[in-house]
Structure to design on (159 residues):
């Protein structure tokens, strides 16, 4: 079984990310952008944990804005979401995920939790670990993959 910590939109709040790492003790960490520098600090601190990071719209970075990674046979798209216009709707992200033939698309950008399963693709936003909106507590995702490739994702909040 593999446990993956999913973070997004940290916006300088290293402390909340450290809290999540210490609580979850993940086998892997994914940071979905905004702010990528925060992820680099966390990666230096927990250099024994494999990391995947993509830039967000506040990272002002050229180069790939998304990655497709494989975790125990699951093809996963990781992106910040701004290039798919997720603040307006999820249609472009869903179509992009279907075109790329992924099992799961992880994204951030909206600072709010989202989960949907449609047309064979799961879309998940863990919310914001550092700068949640509308009075919601900071949140992060915990993805557990059993030895048979089955994915379970839960959202946890920092009170």
């Amino acid at each position: 079984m593999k446990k993956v910590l999913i973070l997004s939109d940290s916006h300088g709040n290293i402390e909340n990310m450290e809290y999540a790492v210490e609580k979850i003790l993940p086998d892997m960490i994914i940071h979905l952008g905004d702010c990528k520098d925060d992820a680099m600090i966390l990666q230096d601190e927990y250099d024994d944990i494999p990391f995947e990071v993509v830039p967000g719209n506040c990272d002002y970075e050229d180069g790939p804005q998304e990655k497709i990674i494989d975790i125990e046979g699951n093809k996963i798209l990781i992106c910040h979401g701004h290039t798919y216009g997720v603040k307006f709707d999820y249609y472009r992200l869903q179509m992009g995920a279907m075109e790329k033939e992924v099992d799961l698309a992880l994204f951030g950008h909206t600072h709010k939790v989202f989960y949907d399963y449609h047309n064979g693709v799961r879309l998940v936003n863990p919310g914001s670990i550092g700068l949640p909106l509308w009075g919601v507590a900071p949140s992060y995702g915990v993805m557990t993959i059993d030895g048979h490739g089955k994915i379970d994702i839960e959202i946890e909040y920092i009170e």
The first strand starts at residue 2 and ends at 7.
